[in-house]
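Re: that chain you flagged

S.,

Sorry for the slow reply, it's been a week of failed gels. I finally had a moment to sit down with the sequence you sent. For the record, here it is as I used it:
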Amino acid sequence: MHDQLLAILNALEDGIFISDLQGRPLWVNRASLAQLDCSEEHLYSSDVYQLEAEGVFSPSVTRFVIDERRPVSVVHRYRGKDYLVNGRLFSLNGAAAKGSSASGVSASNAAESHATESPAAEGNATANNAAEGTAPAWQDDGEPDAVVVQTRNLNEDVLASRSPDTTQALLDYVMHQLKRIRQEQVVHEDRDTPLSSSPAYRRCLELVERAAGSEATVLFTGETGVGKSWLVNRLHQHSARHDKPLIHVNCAAIPEALLEAELFGHVRGAFTGANRDGRIGHVALAEGGTLFLDEIGELPLALQPKLLQLLQERLYHPLGGKPTRADVRIVAATNADLERRVAGGEFRADLFYRLNIVPIRVPALRERREDILPLARHLLGNISVRHKRPLRLERDALKVIARHDWPGNVRELENLLERTSVFCVTESINADDLSLDPGMAPASASVPGDRVEPDDNQPLPERLEAIERAAIFQALDSEGSTRKAADSLGVTQSWLMRRLRRYGGK
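Prediction finished late last night. Pasting the structure tokens below so you have them in one place:
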């Protein structure tokens, strides 16, 4: 029966990796060996901690299971393929439960006996070991003494699975796929974007290219809408980590009470209402890649020491868990004056200095006027392709666009052109077409997000919207942050963020 069991395990397309609780490999099937960039001999003479340090695993799910003593499911990209990796504790039966390896060798002698415990060259266990009854067996009872990790190629029909343990990992996989599609779009846009004629912006691009070749922490600053996120994508795509995840975390969009769990993850039962199997945080999801902390100025003071530890020591603590080492590059962005916040006691000085190793200020669009018209033509070209409608800007429209100060920067310009493309009757966009929206003033005088006084002649819904918009932006001006503005308005921060997206703010 044991021979047949080994044959079945080796016939699986899924990789099976079994280790003891010290992370030493006990038995690995053919599929798992084929997936790993490591010789069989080296695999059995190492442990998962060493293999993770060497990059064979990035990250090691076995290590997560051992450290956190819970089932773990992640999606991992390796050699251009995506894998769903599930790990869990279990008990080996018979002699194995008393310390023997899956191949019949004592775990304490694993380092000296790896040659006999390794699978044969064809991927099977040796005939002697199989005859001794040493095949691994899964049991739900007994004290766990081993870890089994199953690896499945997501290019196969994995989505047919409905296992609750894999739901979160599959959702993470979908998010990774969406991010990868976006990153591919960024690469395509990178090739098509016209070269900047602005010395200030060309200097900014040069700094991004130079920073991409290092591992240093980068802090992007600049007004809202200048394209900081696009530059972070460019930095990641040109870095040595381009084939690893780029995880975007908006510190202002996540409620303060949940931000720590979202960022660092949590173990089972860490707090009331926590997921029963725990949750892997954004830091772990970014393992090997880049963690982008947008709106870093909104990070709560209580959480700042933990981010500082991640920057200084590359260690973080999941809620209720043990210290965990992270291999991530940190990139941050903000439209706030962090030095002013440091002086006001709202932001830690030591964290600011750690983030500000490579500062890159992104110039506002009005500071690079020579780029406005080429950028407008480029954005309209992308919109035309997306809407399958050839559009062009007439001379009077170009004059209006060139004169405008664009306080909302590139985002405002793109939103205006997108809206105009929807309402424009002909394929030629004139100056009058730029103010088709009744609730929007002419482009030469106003932008989405400006305060608009209510007009008594407007319908009631539009008057109420104008009053709401004015109150929101007045609160932002006086309070300086979305969190404080939400408190002053008596609303939640997530509600305020949704309204800002509607009105064109950030």
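What I noticed first: The chain has 21 helices and 14 strands.

Talk soon,
D.
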